[in-house]
Amino acid sequence: MNRELSYHIMECDSRKTIRDFLKEQGFSRQILIHLKQNPECVRLNGIPVFLNSVLKTGDRLNVVLVEQETSAIPPASADELKIIYEDEDILAINKPSGLPIHPSIHHYTDTLANQVMGYYQSQGLPFVFRCINRLDRDTTGLTLIAKNLLSSCVLSEQVRTKQLQRTYLALAYGQLPNEGVISAPIARSSDSIITRIVDFERGQSAVTTFKTLAYYEPLSFLSLQLLTGRTHQIRVHLKHFGTPLIGDSLYAPEYMLMERQALHSSQLSFIHPVTKKEMQLTAPLPLDMQRLFPWFSDVL
């Protein structure tokens, strides 16, 4: 999928090279190499130029990101795709439970990636699937997808620098303080390739903040933010805290009050990769969690 970007050069960017200006816009070394190999893709006032050309006030710089490849992912029907937001650079989906993000040996055609590929194939558009925040199969809610090389590069950097903030809603068994921080390193369990544990010797740093929105015995309704992005982080941290997620068959099978872990990606806050505007996307709490906490709307 091609993406054309247009920049009006202001006084503050005058006398910069095109290369330096594009670096400041988030263009990675890989993208700059791609542009260098395709000189027709960079035009200054309508004329093809090299990346070492110098800008001046009032110039119009046009850059075309050419991408005709498509991911080797079989397309599937996009009828169930719940789009929260879409523009030329990003796609935000409200993912249902039971839907993996990426194809695997057991889920080759029934994933979010398959549905997104089908959505763009129906429009006759090539597409490379680039998911920014990955959710477990049974975790619901906002999933952000980059639609081109630049948005993928910029958003991935925001994840690395913690500019992209992820807020989750959860139902835990037991009562937590009004708010707090769980800082406990996470490692893979020695006897499993799936299960994670808190391990203060082998684990990688993992930090989760939480607020208790309401308590209705024996359930706590929580808002949580990830300050790191370890596999199963919220699930492992809440188990370690003694207040496991209900419905979590992997980490708390004794608290199966619903058929999946009660975890929902409710909000993503980030800077738009191209417009630089502040973005805040939200996805409503799914019905299975609403039914277990009937007063959820009064505390959000």
Q: What does the model show?
A:
- This protein is an alpha+beta fold and about 300 residues long.
- Among the domains are: about 5-65, RNA-binding S4 domain (Structural Genomics Hypothetical 15.5 Kd Protein In mrcA-pckA Intergenic Region, Chain A), CATH 3.10.290; about 165-265, Pseudouridine synthase, CATH 3.30.2350.10.
- Helices cover about 20% and strands about 30% of the residues.
- It contains seven helices and 16 strands.
- It has helices at about 20-25, 30-35, 110-120, 150-160, 235-240, 285-290, 295-300, and strands at about 5-10, 40-45, 45-50, 60-65, 85, 90-95, 130, 140-145, 165-175, 180-185, 185-190, 195-200, 205-215, 220-225, 265-270, 280.
- The strands form three sheets. Strands 5, 6, 7, 8, 9, 10, 13, 14, 15 and 16 form a ten-stranded mixed sheet that branches. Strands 1-4-2-3 form a four-stranded antiparallel sheet, with helices on one face. It has a two-stranded antiparallel ribbon with strand order 11-12.
- The radius of gyration is 22 Å and the shape is elongated.
- The two termini are about 40 Å apart.
Instruction: Give the CATH superfamily of the domain at 166-265.
Output: Pseudouridine synthase
Backbone structural class: alpha+beta
**How many strand elements?**
16
CATH fold descriptor of the domain at 166-265: Pseudouridine synthase
**CATH architectural grouping of the domain at 166-265:** 2-Layer Sandwich
- CATH structural class of the domain at 166-265: Alpha Beta
Major sheet: size, sense and barrel closure?
A: 10 strands, mixed
List the helices and strands in order: EHHEEEEEHEEHEEEEEEHEEHH
Q: Percent of residues in helical segments?
A: 10-25%
Mean pLDDT figure: 94
Give the end-to-end Cα distance, rounded to a whole number of Å.
38 Å
Beta-strand residue fraction: 25-35%
